[in-house]
Specification:
The chain is an alpha+beta fold. The chain has two domains: about 140 residues, Fructose-1,6-Bisphosphatase, Chain A, domain 1 (2-Layer Sandwich); about 100 residues, D-Maltodextrin-Binding Protein, domain 2 (3-Layer(aba) Sandwich), CATH 3.40.190.80. The protein has seven helices and 15 strands. The strands form three sheets. It has an eight-stranded mixed beta sheet with strand order 4-3-5-6-7-8-9-10, with helices on both faces. A five-stranded mixed beta sheet has the order 12-11-13-15-14, sandwiched between helices. Strand 9 and strand 10 form a beta hairpin. The chain is globular, with a radius of gyration of 17 Å. The N and C termini lie far apart (about 35 Å).
Amino acid sequence: MEDFYLKFSEIGKLIMEKLSSGENQPLIKNIVGIGADGTATHHMDKICEDVIINYVQDTDLPFNIMSEEVGFLDRGYEETLLTDPLDGTFNAENRIPFYSVSMATLIDDFNSLSRGFIMDLANGDSFYAEKGKGSKFNNRTIMVSKVPVRGYISSIGSGDDTLRKKIMELPGRHRYFGCASLEMALLAKGSVDLVAYIGDGSYIRNVDVAAGVMIVREAGGIVSDEHGGEFNMGLDVTVRRNMIAARNREILGELI
């Protein structure tokens, strides 16, 4: 467990160094292309992705790579590193301190997830989980909250009016921060009760939540689709899904 945590942490620190480099500042908001997921690739996205690809190849980490920007790089391994090199690009570009690098390892879908890593690139905090070994925040074990926090993170688009209404009527504080991986990490360490991405315009991609799903589940939380069933995604970065993550199944039962 420790070995991959250290390697992923090295990647995160290298990305932080690159983003803080003065040479990148003039180009920071430039759009340089269209990524494999069909969305715009910003200069900052490309910087972060290059760090990951170069590190994996230079150290020969035993993974293929599937990234939001470049797509699939087949390196001949069974497992794939599924990554969003910069989750929360808008936040990063506009100096809003809530953006991350997110990496997860899996074979073909979320049922085969083996590791999840998220680093807050604004301050270096990191979250890590390995299948069957729990979740950690800065190398300390974390769990979802056992008592109601009455805090919810939700991105609600158009679609199922009943479900949207139920989520928004949950008593407490509702927030949305624009970085799905760190929002999932907040649930895993007990800061909120629920994280939901529901409806057109708010569907989630695998790169956004793969690591977060692993970390939440290993911290004792539940991740489901909008019907309360198993939440599962494959390696295709163009696919979008509804997702609800909660600290326990009781909260899901109130919604679904």
